[in-house]
Design brief:
- With 32 residues, the chain is mainly α.
- It has one domain (1-32).
- Helix content is 75%, strand content 0%.
- The protein is built from 3 helices and no strands.
- It has helices at 2-15, 17-21, 24-28.
- The longest helix has 14 residues, at 2-15.
- It is elongated.
């Protein structure tokens, strides 16, 4: 049961990698 949950979680993150990187990119290198 936990297997499919882990797969869905990974799929969701892999499906939208921009969403996880977006908030990290601007914080790491702020644009002027």
């Amino acid at each position: 049961m936990v297997n499919w949950v882990s797969q869905l979680s990974l799929n969701h993150i892999l499906s939208r990698p921009v969403r996880v990187i977006a908030p990290i990119v601007p914080t790491s290198r702020p644009t002027k």
